[in-house]
Amino acid sequence: MNTELFISRRLFFDKSNKKFLSQKIIRIALVGIALGLAVMIISVAVVTGFKNEIRNKVIGFGSHIQVVNFDSNNSFETRPISKKQPFLDELKTLNGVNKVQVFATKPGMIKTDEYIQGIVLKGVDSGYDWSFFSNNLIEGNLPGINDSVRSDEILISDQVSKLLEVSVGDRVVLYFINEDESNPRMLQLTICGFYNTGMEEFDNLFVLGDLQQVQRLNNWNTDQISGFEVVISDFFRIDEIEQNVRNTVLDYSIENDAILRTTNITREYPQIFDWLSILDMNVWIILFLMAVVAGFNMISGLLVLILERSKMIGVLKALGSPNWSIRKVFLYLSVFLTSRGMIWGNAIGIGFIVVQNYFEVLKLNPTTYYVDVVPVNFSLIYIVLLNIGTIVATTLMLVIPSYLVSKISPEKTIRFD
């Protein structure tokens, strides 16, 4: 039988304890623990939700990994490669690879009678995964693209439509310039729909259309594209999977053929992903401060408990209990009390996540934050780790204050009583 655990449970459930001063101090400590844990849960949920939301939006425009011509720079004016590559079959079966799709880009301008806007026409084929733009479609339809007939439909952002003052179904003129041509090329295309991701930097830039239109503009044949987009299953394995993709591409490289290179979305847009990484530091600071506050709250409560139970400590010592055994009684009791505060903290934190997820109570300015509501990510793993971390941190902080037990003399406490 664990004697220390038995005594601490009796103390925890003893209703007569309500008359002690320590109960009021402990209530304050438990409120601090509950609010601290709630803040930690909410902070992690909001930051991870925000990072996931922004990351998924950036990936939606450019996929996780791209395989392009080595001679292509960071601009959207690319060198062509053949879409009939010998590595494709093996690339599609790599562990972690979900989909491989072709694309081509061409920078240009879109013009109406009164307004003009710089854009990048991204051409895709019938095998393109439209799920990202389908989820962000606010009006109209996605372009109807097939490989047999060239489509004149384009999908533009709601932001661009407002700048140009156009509607779904309107025809607009797009202008493109090639290096070896003095006169711009023109395309008259039909707007089939508007999308809105909240990423103004990308929404103002990308226009989605038929791959064959880009091939026509660049004087490419039907076999030539800008590159391949590789969609993977786990973003946190992006470096590992990119290395596997690179090795596969190099294994099938052919002499005198175009040299290919791989790049991933974090290197294409380092400023965004570096900014997201900084948010992790903010979370760690919040977690540290909340854990320290919770620990000091429980230290004050433990000290009062020990002083109020000095008679009990004296009796236990007189009966032969060692100091460490008595300290364990109060540590167990502190764990029980901390757990009670954590129950309320979990209820508050999880309650906020559920309410925000379903009712979107808190709004944001999408121009500044790229999202119109505060995103939250409910992760059971994070919640369990936060609970374990909180109770371990507070218990460890209580070990030293519990040393006060050894300073209490059984002779003096019993005689005084």
List keywords for this structure.
2 domains, 10-stranded mixed sheet, two-stranded antiparallel ribbon, 417 residues
Describe this structure in words.
The protein is α+β, with helices and mostly antiparallel strands and 417 residues long. The chain folds into 2 domains: 3-57 and 273-416, no CATH class; 71-258, no CATH class. 52% of the residues lie in helices and 18% in strands. The strands form 2 sheets. Strands 1, 3, 4, 5, 6, 7, 8, 9, 11 and 12 form a 10-stranded mixed beta sheet that branches. Strand 3 and strand 4 form a beta hairpin. It starts with a helix and ends with a helix.
Short description:
This protein is α+β, with helices and mostly antiparallel strands.
Query: N-to-C terminal Cα separation, in Å?
Result: 30 Å
Structure class: alpha+beta
Tell me the β content: 15-25%
The helix/strand series, from N terminus to C terminus, equals HHEEHEEHEEHEEHEHEEHEHHHHHHH
Question: How large is the count of helical segments?
Answer: 15
Instruction: Provide the residue-averaged pLDDT.
Output: 90
Question: Low-confidence parts, pLDDT < 50 over ≥5 residues?
Answer: none
Largest sheet properties: 10 strands, mixed
The total strand number stands at 12
User: Over all CA atoms, what is the radius of gyration?
Assistant: 32 Å
Helix content: 40-55%
Number of separate domains: 2
State the shape. Answer: elongated
